Amino acid sequence: MVSATKQGSDSAAQDGEPVRRTTPHPADTGLNPGSGALDGAEGDSSPQDGTGHGTGGHGDGLAPGLRHVAFRAGIWRRRALIVTLRVVRLVRTGVVRFLPGLRYLGRALQKRWRRSLQFRTVLTTLMLAVTSFAVVGAYLSNQIANNLFQERLTQAESETRYNVKQVQDTFDGAQVTDQSSVITLVSDTLSAVEGRGSVIQRRYVFEAMPNQTKPRNRWVESRASDQLTVSVIPADLRKAVQESGKDQYWASTVIPVGTEDRPGIAVGNKVTFNGTVYELYLIYDLNTAQQTLNEIQSVLWAGGAVLVLLIGAVAWYVTRNVVSPVSHAAMVSEKLAAGQLQERMVVRGEDEVARLGASFNHMAASLQEQITQLATLSQMQQRFVSDVSHELRTPLTTVRMAAEVLYDARDDFDPINKRSAELLYNQVERFQSLLSDLLEISRFDAGVAVLDAEPEDLLQVIAHVIEGAAPVAAEYGSEILYTAPEGSMIVEMDARRIDRILRNLILNAVEHGEGKPVTVTVAANETAVAVAVRDHGIGLDQAQAARVFDRFWRADPARARTTGGSGLGLSIAMEDTKLHHGWLQAWGRKGDGANFRLTLPLRQEDGISEPPLQLEPKDVTTPGAPGSIPAEEGNRNMLVLQAGGATPAPPQASEETP
Amino acid sequence: MKARILVVDDDEALAEMIGIVLRNDGFEPVFCADGAQALDVFRSSRPDLVLLDLMLPGMDGIEVCRQIRGESDVPIVMLTAKSDTSDVVRGLESGADDYVPKPFKPAELVARVRARLRPGDQKAPETLKIADITIDVAGHTVSRGNDRISLTPLEFDLLVALARKPWQVFTRELLLEQVWGYRHAADTRLVNVHVQRLRSKIEQDPEAPEVVLTVRGVGYKAGV
C-alpha cells in the first residue's frame, strides 16, 4: 500500500538521521497529508494536528527528561519524608534523653575547635571535601542518568518506528476478512512486536482510537501485553498521538512488572487496519538502566566516602606534622615561662620546623644564660649588701660608741676638743643614718625586701608617729592637727614599714611647713584606707614636683645641707608603699604647700578600688582669682607619682625630706 | 656585787669599746673572741648575762646561743649587724631574749643589759592562775597540775605580765615596754617570736592556744 511505503520511507529517513528529539518532524507532518493515501478522516485530523500539536509534542519532548526526573523525585521524596520523620523522632527522643551529654559534647567540641588548630583544619577539610563531592557526585550522577535515559530513548524510538512500520506493513498486506483470522492476525502481529525468544524486549498497548465510526469488519477493539492496560499510558501522550498525524510521541511512565512497578518509556504512534485507526504504544522497561544507574551511584557514594575519609586522614597527617612541632614549641615555651629554663625543643631534620626549633632553642639558651647571669648578679649583690652591712657596721658601732663616750665627756675638754667631739658625734650619727638608708634601698633593689604583713591598727601607728614627731614639730614651731575616725582601723600591713613611711611624711611636712600647721587626715572606705599629710609651706613647681620620689633629690640644692637626712627617705617610702600594693602620691603648688597621700588596701589580696581621700586638698583656692577655673592657671602644677596601679589624676609637687 | 657580762665578739676594737662602756656603767665584762670557746668561757665565768655577736669565727652565734640556752636560763642579748627579718627571727628562736642591732648607742646597749638584768622586783609571795596554769611569782615556777614547766626568765616575765591583768589586752608595744623595758618603738617581732616560744612550752596545743590568746589587730591577752 502506498501509505505503507510512505511510512516506510519516512521511517527510513528518520532512522537515517540521529534521532535526538521525539517531537514530530515538521517534514513528517508535512509529508503525511501530502501522501494522501489515508482515509479522509485521518487525513483531516493529521494536518490539523501537524502544527497544533507541534507545540504539544514539543512540550512532551522536553518533558521526558523532566518527567523521568519527576517520577524519580516522587519516589525519592517519599523515601526522604520517611527517613526525615524517623530522624526527627530519633533526634527528639535523643535530645530529651541525652541533652546534658550532648551539651557537654557540644561544649567539648567547641573548645576543641577553639583550641586545636589540627582539629579545626581536619574538620574544615572534611566539610569542604564532602561539599565538593556532593556537588560533583550530583552532577555526575545526573549526567549519567541523562545519558543512560537518552540512549535508551533513542533506541526505543528507532525500535518503535521499525516495529510500527512492520505492524503497518503486516496489516496492509493482510488479506483476511473473517473475524477469527483477523483476531489471530492481530495477536500474532502484536506478539511479534513483543520480541522473539523468551525475553520480552518491549510491551505494547494496542487501542482503537475513540470516536470513530465502527467499520463493519472491526473485530479488534484493544489488546495489550500481560498486566498492561491502556491506563499505563499517560493521558498527555494519548492525546498527542490521537491528535497528530502519523507522528511518534513518547512519555515516561510506570509499568507493573510482576509485583513491582518499574520505570518505563511509552512510545506511541498510529496504525491503520481495515479502515480503523489504532493507537499503538510500545513500552520499554527502563529497569536495567535504572539498575545500572543505581550501581553507578552506589559506586560513586562508596568512592566518595572512601575518598573523603582518605582526605580527612591526609589532612590529619599533614596538619599533625605541621602543628605538632608548633604545639610542642608552645608547650616548651610555657614551661620556659614557668621557670624551667633547661627545657628545649626536639630538633629533627633541616626543614622550617627544625629551623624554628633550633632558633627557639638558641633563644631559650641565651635567655637562660641571661637569667642565670642576672640571678648570679642579684645573689652577688645581696651577698655584697650583707657583707657591707656587717663589715661597715661593726667598726661604725665602735666609732659611734667612742664618739658618744667622748661626747658625754666633752665638758671636760678645752673648746677646740669639745667642738671636735661634737662634730664627730653629729657626723657619725649622720653617717649612720645614711648608711642604713643606703642598705635599706639596696635591699629593695636586690628584691630581698619582704612584706611581713599582719592585721594591725593603723590609727595606733599614726598616733605613735605623731607623738614621736611632736618634739621636732615644737622645734619648728608648727602644730600637727590630726583628724581621724573614732575607734580603730585594722589594716593588713607591715607596721614597721608603715611607721617609717608616715614618720618620713610627717617629719618632711614639719620641716618644710615653715612653722605653719601640718594636717594629718585619715579616712577609709570598703577597700582602702588613706592618710593625707598636708603642709602649708612654700610648695613646689612642676619641674621639682616631677622628681619628688627620686633618690638623693633635693628641692633646693642651695639649702640642701641645712637639714640632715640621707635624701633617700621618700624613695624608701615609695618602695615600702609598693611592697604593700598601695599608692603614694604627692600634690603641691608653689606657695600653697604640699599634700602627700598614702593609700593602702585593707587586705593585701584585694587591692584598692577607689581612694577614700582626695589628693588635692579642699582648702586650696586659686590665688588672686577665686572665680577662675583653677585647672587653667599657669602655676598650678600637678603630678601623680604612685606605686602600684596607674591613676591619671594630676597631682604634683612636694619636697624631699632631707 | 657587780653583774658579770660575757661579751662574745670577734671584733677586738668593738669588744674593747663595749668593755669600756660596760665598766663605765658598773658592770664586769668578760671577753671571748671565738665561738668555739664561748661555751667553755661561759661555764668558767658564770656570767649574769651574755652579749653575743651573731657572726663569729669557729662557731655560728646562733649555735652558741642554742648551746648556752641548753644548759642555762641566763639572759642572752644578741648583737646583730644584719637587721634582716630571717636572721633576727632565727636568733630569737634559738633562745636569745633580746637583740641590739649594730650600730647601737652605748646608752641603748646599757639599757638593754639593765632591762635583762632587772632583778625580779616583785618578790612578794603571789600566785597567779591563767587557764589551767599556776604561776608562783616569788618561787619563779610555773606548773600545770603537778607538772612543772621550765621557762626562761624572759618567758616567765612575759607570762606574769599577761597573767597579772587578765582583763587587759596587751599591745605588742606595751609588752615591749613592760617586759623588755623599751621606752620607744622597737621591733615587735621580738614579742611575736617569744609569744610563740612561750606557747610551745605552756600550751597543750600551740596551734589552738588557750593560755595566751591573740587579739587580732591589737595584741595578746591571758586566757581565762
From TrEMBL, chain A:
It catalyses: ATP + protein L-histidine = ADP + protein N-phospho-L-histidine. Residues 320-372 form the HAMP domain. It is an enzyme of class 2 (transferase). Residues 1-12 have a biased composition (Polar residues). The chain crosses the membrane at residues 117-140. It is found in: Cell membrane. CDD domains: HAMP, HisKA. InterPro entries: HAMP_dom, HATPase_C_sf, HATPase_dom, His_kinase_dom, HisK_dim/P_dom, HisK_dim/P_sf, MtrAB_MtrB, Sensor_HK_Regulatory. Residues 387-604 form the Histidine kinase domain. Residues 51-62 have a biased composition (Gly residues). Its EC number is 2.7.13.3. It comes from the Bacteria. Its main location: membrane. Signal peptide: none annotated. Keywords: Kinase, Membrane, Phosphoprotein, Transferase, Transmembrane, Transmembrane helix, Two-component regulatory system. GO terms for molecular function: protein histidine kinase activity. Residues 1-63, 605-658 are annotated as: Disordered. NCBIfam families: MtrAB_MtrB (NF040691). This is Sensor histidine kinase MtrB.
From TrEMBL, chain B:
SUPFAM superfamilies: CheY-like. Coiled coil: none annotated. It comes from the Bacteria. Keywords: DNA-binding, Phosphoprotein, Transcription, Transcription regulation, Two-component regulatory system. Residues 125-224 form the OmpR/PhoB-type domain. PROSITE patterns: OMPR_PHOB, RESPONSE_REGULATORY. The modification 4-aspartylphosphate is found at residue 53. Gene3D superfamilies: 3.40.50.2300, 6.10.250.690, Winged helix-like DNA-binding domain superfamily/Winged helix DNA-binding domain (1.10.10.10). Residues 125-224 bind DNA. CDD domains: REC_OmpR_MtrA-like (cd17626), trans_reg_C (cd00383). The keyword Phosphoprotein applies. Residues 4-117 form the Response regulatory domain. NCBIfam families: MtrAB_MtrA. This is DNA-binding response regulator MtrA. It comes from Pseudarthrobacter enclensis. The lineage of its organism: Bacteria, Bacillati, Actinomycetota, Actinomycetes, Micrococcales.
